[in-house]
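TA notes, week 10

Several of you asked for a full example with nothing omitted. So below is the full record: structure tokens for the whole chain, then the designed sequence directly under it. When grading your own attempts, check the secondary structure regions first.
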């Protein structure tokens, strides 16, 4: 995505895609103050992929934010249980699906 800068993650973020997800997240975050992840079409994210996201949130430069846009309800519930709000590099974004 170009405006806002970030990634659109679709389908399934599972064991087959962990390395690709990590690489794209690193690249998208490099030198950016804000990176948006559009998750509207994300059907499934396994726990390792959530760890990849959490690891990247911890690794970003201070002041850099990963914004989770269009967060699917099933993923929001899992993230709430895991305490995603404790990751200083993550924040909830907008929901354009309504």
């Amino acid at each position: 995505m170009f405006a806002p800068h970030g990634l659109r993650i679709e389908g399934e973020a599972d064991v087959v895609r962990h390395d690709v997800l990590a690489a794209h997240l690193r690249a998208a975050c490099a030198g950016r103050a804000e990176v948006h992840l559009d998750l509207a079409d994300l059907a499934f994210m396994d726990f390792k992929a959530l760890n990849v996201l959490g690891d990247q949130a911890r690794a970003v430069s201070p002041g850099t934010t990963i914004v989770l846009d269009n967060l699917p309800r099933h993923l929001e519930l899992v993230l709430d249980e895991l305490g995603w709000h404790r990751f200083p590099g993550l924040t909830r974004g907008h929901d354009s699906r309504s």
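The beta strands are 6-8, 11-13, 34-38, 42-45, 65-69, 90-92. Use that as a sanity check on your answer.
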